[in-house]
Amino acid sequence: MSAPQRFMARRGVRQFVKFGIVGVSGALVNYIIYSLLLHVAVAHWLAYAAGFILGGVNNYWWNRRWTFRSSGHAGKELAQFISVSTVALGISELVLWGALRLLPEAMPLRNSSAWLAATVFGMGWNFFANKYWTFRHTHQAAEGQA
After folding, report:
1. Confidence at residue 8, expressed as pLDDT on a 0 to 100 scale
2. Nearest to 101 by CA among 120, 119, 117
3. What are the residues whose beta carbons fall under 8 Å from the beta carbon of 92, sequence distance 6 or more?
4. Which of 34, 21, 28 lies closest to 114 in space, CA to CA?
5. How far is CA 26 from CA 8, 48, 57, 144, in A?
6. 12-24 b/e (C-beta count within 10 Å ≥ 16 → b)
7. Which string of b and e fits 26-64 if b means at least 16 CB within 10 Å?
8. Quick check: helix, strand or coil at residue 5?
9. pLDDT at 112 over 70
10. How far apart are CA 90 and CA 87, in angstroms?
11. Cβ contact 13:22 at 8 Å
12. Is 134 in contact with 78 (CB distance < 8 Å)?
């Protein structure tokens, strides 16, 4: 097996790739909601929060079923996922606020650029906090056997 194949065979790497795929689907949900709400004159912060929440519901479902294949207590995991997401939302809202102040109002794709910056900053926190807190029971035994 080649070095890249061995790297991709690692459970954590596979989970990160799956987490990224799920994240892209959640980001699409988030962006569509954000854009639609901006078109009906909803405030940026509220449009972002609504998109973030609906994208998060998408992400929770797919990460629980596919990325981490969890069979743990769904209510406990959901509460933890929401806690992690709340912190990520706070981080993202601060980045969105800063980006909207730094980027010129006449800049093409200003809202999209601010949204992208906010989303990228929240992703790192989301993956590691969910992997090592929310869904930690899905990988502890496997890592202990290695």
Report:
1. 64
2. 117
3. 48, 52, 118, 119, 121, 122
4. 34
5. 23, 13, 8, 31
6. eeebbebbeebbe
7. bbebbbebbeebbeeebebeebbbbbbbbbbebbbebbb
8. helix
9. yes
10. 5
11. no
12. no
C-alpha 64/C-alpha 45 separation (Å) is 28
Contact 37/51 with Cβ under 8 angstroms?
yes
E strand or H helix at 41, and its extent? Answer: none
DSSP-assigned states of every residue in 62-120: HIIIIIS---S-HHHHHHHHHHHHHHHHHHHHHHHHHHHHHS-TTSTTHHHHHHHHHHH
Report d(CA 88, CA 130) in Å as an integer: 11
Query: What amino acid occupies position 8?
Result: M
* Claim: this prediction has a pTM higher than 0.85: no
- Render pLDDT for 12-38 as a digit per residue (tens, 0 to 9): 788 888 988 998 999 899 999 999 999
Length of the chain: 146
Amino acid letter for position 30: N
